Structure of Cytochrome c3 family protein:
Amino acid sequence: MAHATRGQVFGPRLELAFKLALLALLLGAPALFAYAVWRESAYQALGEPVEQPIPFSHKHHVGDDGIDCRYCHATVETSRHAGLPASSTCLGCHAQLYTDQAVLRPLHESARTGRPIAWRRVHSLPGFVYFDHAVHLAKGVACVECHGRVDQMPLTWRAQPLQMQWCLECHRDPAPRLRARADLFTPAAPRVAPAEAARLAALVGLEGRQRRTDCSTCHR
């Protein structure tokens, strides 16, 4: 019996502490994961405008002036990320328009110092989710499907939950949400009729349902 005691790597107390720590880890990991997901997804309530360093109005720029999404979000068709405009892009207009307005001081300061404007994110996904803007546009998913009617937003807000179940609803049956290429960047363009939706789905060559809903498609 004494020989067995000398041969033990851990004493009874240390072994008990190790088992309790392991149990706490097994029980706590799911809770920590759920909390992380909640933090990522609950950052902003649906329909709640997000304050910005400059109160940029999509309603004015897109709805009233008709500026195309790609003028500011220049990489949306070629990259995972839509991109944000450089200060020089904004100054393409605002070097002449409303130059003395106090609300545009952060823009001129950014141009002077070279420091980008600290815009606050409105649409965000957890780090474990892979999303590619270019792929969705290439398959006929218009901006409005995820971002809502930005042409009616004086300040931008989150229009959709962007949670997994919401994404899967579209991935299971994307055809009704597709639009012709000419309408991808037109928020007011309505969804097409079922026959046209089926034609568009065939035209863009959608992946099969199994591939669209496979875990590895969005979690890499």
